[in-house]
Amino acid sequence: xxxxxxxxxxxxxxxxxxxxxxxxxxxxxxxxxxxxxxxxxxxxxxxxxxxxxxxxxxxxxxxxxxxxxxxxxxxxxxxxxxxxxxxxxxxxxxxxxxxxxxxxxxxxxxxxxxxxxxxxxxxxxxxxxxxxxxxxxxxxxxxxxxxxxxxxxxxxxxxxxxxxxxxxxxxxxxxxxxxxxxxxxxxxxxxxxxxxxxxxxxxxxxxxxxxxxxxxxxxxxxxxxxxxxxxxxxxxxxxxxxxxxxxxxxxxxxxxxxxxxxxxxxxxxxxxxxxxxxxxxxxxxxxxxxxxxxxxxxxxxxxxxxxxxxxxxxxxxxxxxxxxxxxxxxxxxxxxxxxxxxxxxxxxxxxxxxxxxxxxxxxxxxxxxxxxxxxxxxxxxxxxxxxxxxxxxxxxxxxxxxxx
Length: 404
Description:
By secondary structure, the protein is of the alpha/beta class. The protein has a single domain, classed as TIM Barrel. The protein has twelve helices and 14 strands. It has helices at about 75-80, 145, 160-165, 175-190, 200-205, 210-220, 255-260, 280-285, 300-305, 325-330, 365-375, 385-395; strands at about 10-15, 15-20, 55-60, 85-90, 90-95, 100, 125-130, 130-135, 195-200, 245-250, 265-270, 310-315, 335-340, 380. The strands form three sheets. An eight-stranded parallel barrel has the order 3-4-9-10-11-12-13-14, surrounded by five helices. The protein has a two-stranded antiparallel ribbon with strand order 1-2. A two-stranded antiparallel sheet has the order 7-8. The two termini are about 40 Å apart. Keywords: Glycerol metabolism, Hydrolase, Signal. Its EC number is 3.1.4.46. InterPro entries: GP_PDE_dom, PLC-like_Pdiesterase_TIM-brl. GO terms for molecular function: glycerophosphodiester phosphodiesterase activity.
């Protein structure tokens, strides 16, 4: 675990005293009280029983990147220390088929790869999910090569404290995170889990990588207890479905359907953006691809449930104002509702919750996040898990409220 203190400064925002302290158990936000562990999200009981967690569950978005560079070991460890129930890794692939934890397969913004002269010739221009990008891509590196890189803060202008840790932490494989979570459970003596996002599955498929197959094999190797959905059954995961610590999400419905077709036993969550259409369906259907918005209609939500999806994850803007209708409709269809991403800086808050023009300053995050939690969501992603836990505790644990 992390133990060293690095920086101490003072900052005031909306009457909340904030300390930029680098101690692992000291956070920018006041330490949250530990709430009662009796809540539940709304997954079908045979897929993932969350009654041992408070509600809504708090998911450390790439760990705790408000304090440490995203997807680093320190970021994930700190998220759990701050009270997160789950952490979220984004999963991409190396050239030798290793599942690597990075937000994107283009890694110039989150690693020091540009400072490695031995990799200068690897810089490429590629089109990924219809977007032209320039940089360095995980699929052009072996895992051994990626191990020579170090994590960097993606938003140094907004999060200069996190940037003080640039260059300290190596990249992680998905296998490393499974082991980390197991260790954190032993140390903290409470249930913990992973919400894994599979990125660019169709793109990687064209390169010869079956992301679903690689993921199932990794889960089985880690012994994470995710077999078939049927009672007493075993899927390609090959082990008993007793642990229930894993949720898989993606913006691409095809890879979720592929996992379910193979008998994979984890809960599946369809990520829904506020604009556009899923990249995999645009690739296969062109202009006929359905918009994300169609998933949020009553009929679309019921169709997701029939397809074996267990929940949706929506941008937080959809839950502010009239967002309760989205939550109610999803729950009526038997789906859980997650939302992303709770961040306290003015740059990320809805306009009415900003406290000034300085984008790096903390706005009225308590007000915005309380409105979101009050909408009845089952899980929230946050860059600052400690703050999200505080808001949850202040709102009060809703307890079990399952549709089955």
